[in-house]
Amino acid sequence: MDQNENRQLEGRELDKVFTDKASGKDAKRPQLEALLDFVRDGDTLYCHSMDRLARNLDDLRKIVLGLTKRGVHVCFVKENLTFTGEESPMANLLLSVMGAFAEFERELLHERQREGIALAKRAGKYRGRKPTMTAERAAELRRRAAAGESKSGIARDFGISRDTLYRYLAVVAPRKVTAKPARKRAGREL
Fold first, then answer.
1. Minimal CA–CA distance to 6: which of 45, 20, 17, 81?
2. Please, which residues have CB within 8 angstroms of residue 159's CB and are 6 or more apart in sequence?
3. Which residues contact 57 (CB under 8 A, 6 or more apart)?
4. Are strands 81-83 and 73-76 parallel, antiparallel or unpaired?
5. φ, ψ dihedrals at 86, nearest 5°
6. Angle at 118 between CA 116 and CA 123, to 5 degrees
């Protein structure tokens, strides 16, 4: 899904903008890590919404609490909430409830996606992602592996992970199956 980062913080004067194209579900994002390294005591972090920072309640709490302990104020524009590090039961409740809603919303999205895919499959309209590996490329991959080339090098050249490489290597070309005549045993056919 395309996102318009300019729209998300429109009207704010910002010193520096950190934007990850990856989903908020992953706490290991390059720009998030750069942001965490950059902010200092007295800074205010403006984030469009909680689900842009993290979609998992545990990650959200960890990030917000880690920032506020360092003296960074965390402001979520969409939710109109600011966390300053002042311990208050209401702030903890709001962070937990709103974070739980973000996580719940993400799970609902995936459930709807799975339901939509199941319906499309039943209707014969869903084909899934097109394979990235043609039969010719898979044969070339197997040939190079059989010649003793490094698996890491092959995976890199083909733009696939080593796990994917090993899955392709494990697939044996279909063999011709011939019917065997039934064995006779004590006068009976099996």
1. 17
2. 132
3. 96, 99, 100, 102, 103
4. antiparallel
5. -70, 120
6. 95
Residue pair 20/8 in contact (Cβ under 8 Å)? The answer is no
| Residue numbers in the chain where pLDDT is lower than 70 | 1-11, 22-27, 172-190
Q: What per-residue confidence (pLDDT) applies to 67?
A: 95
Q: Can you give the pTM of this predicted structure? A: 0.57
Place of tokens 């984030």: 47
Looking at residue 174, its pLDDT comes to 46
Q: What pLDDT, on a 0 to 100 scale, did the predictor assign at position 187?
A: 55
Give the Å distances, CA to CA, from 36 to 4, 14, 47, 178.
22, 16, 13, 63
CA 173-179-184 angle, 5° bins: 140
> Over the Cα atoms of the chain, what is R_g?
27
Total residues belonging to the chain: 190
